[in-house]
Give the backbone structure.
Amino acid sequence: MSQDRPLPTTSYALLGLLSFGRELTGYELKQFADRTLRFYWTSPAMSQIYTELARLAERGWVDADERSGGERTTTHYSISDAGMGELRRWLRDSTPEFMQLKHPVALRLLLGHLVPPDVVRGWLETYLAQLDGQRAALREVLEGIEDDDRYAFPAHVARWGLAIYDEEEATTTGVEQALDERRVSGRGRRRRS
Amino acid sequence: MSQDRPLPTTSYALLGLLSFGRELTGYELKQFADRTLRFYWTSPAMSQIYTELARLAERGWVDADERSGGERTTTHYSISDAGMGELRRWLRDSTPEFMQLKHPVALRLLLGHLVPPDVVRGWLETYLAQLDGQRAALREVLEGIEDDDRYAFPAHVARWGLAIYDEEEATTTGVEQALDERRVSGRGRRRRS
DNA sequence: TGTAGCATGTAAGCCGTTACATGATTGA
DNA sequence: TCAATCATGTAACGGCTTACATGCTACA
């Protein structure tokens, strides 16, 4: 049954969300992912969620409970015992790759010399604002779970995310300051010290 | 000419590397990306590099210089004036998205309660080791450029990366310690304080 | 009454990877 | 002479997104 090509990490991420025990619709799972996964992985598109759930169901790792509540049919998914086993197996056996960062601002900063300083400053300012928004969202998540020992691990992860945001803010403002100083001091130099 | 579907960020990243002025083969560009892009974006696969270069050449943003050095033909690519213009335009006009993190260790940590503590500790230890390796590589890059004012922006980016690695190390060891303390103190609690 | 949110999917297609294929050059 | 590195590509295909399509429910 079912070819044993290993599933991508995203499948396990979703299975992991279901492992917290609630029965969820695809729609609810997406919301869950938006509040959690998106900070350190990705929150897959809706269409991807449904595809993933179908695949997990096919392997027997989630149970699909179709409910015809009146006219409409909604499907609630819950992790199965086999799914819990598979998740545990994956956690033990797979070796986590190194963190992978896609940092559009850092990428552009690399080429900062090609644009006027104000453009660079604009990137950094926008980034700081985004950072505030993301941090607020993540802090809210943390506040919802940090007193509950059942969510001790998720709380660690949330704090981890906040630490990254703090560092990002510090670094960004640091770069801004360096840029300001550079403007004041001489320009034409080729090598310093 | 050429449909104006905007190119993906990766194309501009490669164009950006070429903007530093050297004439590069696809092979050399890959090495360059491995030393730079990989820390805050991605270093595309070789095949992707060649595909990208072909596409950039098609649009006239890079010039391809085919050299038949004896038997073999190697192609050296350099950014064109049009390419420089397009790169500047992109830097000004595109709005950078928010940083995107794929953090396999954080993802697994979320599910730490499903595996024995030693497995979690293993993830963290391995991560710390990887971190050391990455940091050493990045520091080497920084040391190669930090005295040269032409690379002031790249140096900022490298320092940014190092700041992230420092934060990651601190956070990781912090989680390790929290895990140790948790082991000593009581387990069965549901809510604390 | 109409709009926002709930809920589910299919289709097309891009991005990027791995696998495969080929061959020259250089140094041990 | 053999292996590693230089160098260039093609093919297949997986992952994931956007666009499209559909319809219910609750609320203002």
User: Anything to note?
Assistant: Chain A has a mean pLDDT of 92.
